[in-house]
What does this fold into?
Amino acid sequence: MSRLGDWLDDRLGLRRAMNDVLDHPLAGGPSWASALGTTVGFLLLVLVATGAALMTTYAPSETTAWASVHYTQFLAPHGWLVRGVHHFAGESMLVLAAAHAAMLAITGGGRRPRELGFWAALGIVGLAALLCITGAALPWDQQGFWARKVELGILAALPGGNTILRLAIGDGALGPAALTRFFALHAVLLPLLTWSLVRVRRRSDRAYARALAERHSVSEAYFPRQVSRDVALAASALIVALWLAYRMHGAALDAPADPRSDYPARPEWYLLWLYELRHHLHGNLELPGTALAPVALLVLFALVPWLGKRGAATSWVGIVVVIASASLVGSMSYLGWKRDAGDAKYQAARRKAQIRSSIATELARDGVPPDGPLAMLARDPELRGEALFTKYCATCHVLGALGDPKKTKAPTLDGWGSESWNLAMLHEPDAQERFGNTPYEGEMPSADVPPKEDAESFKPLTKDEMDAVAAFLSSQADEPGEPIDPKAVRNVKTDVGQKLVVERCTTCHLYEGKGDDGGKGLAPELHGYGSFAWTRAQLADPATPTTYREGARDPQRKGHMPALAEELPSADLDLLARWTRAHARGVALR
It folds into this structure.
């Protein structure tokens, strides 16, 4: 080993290089501020190493980016750990770079002749933020896509912003060119620029330290006290990144980016303060004020070396600037988090987005088709059914989280076809969740509550009779192979219920094509009520004898149900019927 060391040293000068590293003088002795700078450089090396590993599975295109990241996160051996360390090392680097610049501003680390080193530290903060921003776009998921959409919209509002956009992402739209350029920036250009500034910062410190050593003839070397600080802080940063990656099982991956979707866009946590700042700027100041805020902070920090008193151990101007900046960023971030936490509409949208993300993750485990993850999701019956219900049904009906209870113009479908739902309809058909606010309000009498008029001749159903009718109607919705509600009481009661329906309900309703003694043509056919065939027929055209009959589309009944067969193909009608029945029963279609 000694001979090998001598051989390498003769050709590469390794020992001299090592001595230069360990024996160079320190300016002002060992410090944790210097250790912060070293740790930033170390984390950049971690990012390069883990990024190189991630590049072996990443494919930067609209149809492959999300699928390749999904493979890394969920299928590749230990891929989640590598991706998690890369993600959290990047965010840790941003935090530590900001802390390093703040400590330099406070301790006067940017005063002459160290201005270039201080400005390099500020530049590293900006580049670390850009590394995080461009990296967040690479999975091409909903979070990364829509956050970048908001940021690019702000940039476009600035003077010359469109020119910058064309240089950064091509044609100004988030698409294939943007993804490719984000990848080139993140993997090549930004790391090179960051490393260059790290070198500038290091050279500035060493030149200043050598000048002090020559002037005073006495100085402390880098080894061992500063080395111990550097190693301790760098190791701690790596351990934190590993711990966060393990606890979060990698980094989050949202559903595939869909430009046509409605997504609750928010930036990442380190940009949330800018998003909240927009709420406090009004009119023409909103967009430019938000875009110029980080630039203004960097400029203010850059002026700190000239604003403080030369020769002082502490820069009071630097302290004021750091406290003011931290207060602005911290308060805006807190207000943004608090605003979102109390926004019920936003939280509901987040839950919906998380469900879609979970579905996409599970579907992709079986492979993503060549035409991409959006095509995979479009073929999924659960998501396709939800999209159809949202577009064609949720404007009037409520089902789960879909629809607005305050604007409902049709019965709520949660539990539709179950015994409890049927009982509620029999008891109070004009309730808000049933026929209230619909064209059928006042048409159906209660089965057990006497009407205000002619109450003496009314014969209410007993509780047992109500249960029997509800059980019978619920049995009409059963399909072969479907699980029956364990709370159902059908067994004997369905026969009693059928007899009661024929005797009492066919005054208005049809059952097996018979009934409607009054001839109004309004009450629906009860045979097969809630079954797949009945539901599909109702969706296709409610004005047929199979369901609600000819009166269902009477023009005088404003808000009547439309015939979707005129708009939807047969396959979509089948899917919408199956999806609605499944979710009314509280189960997923898949």
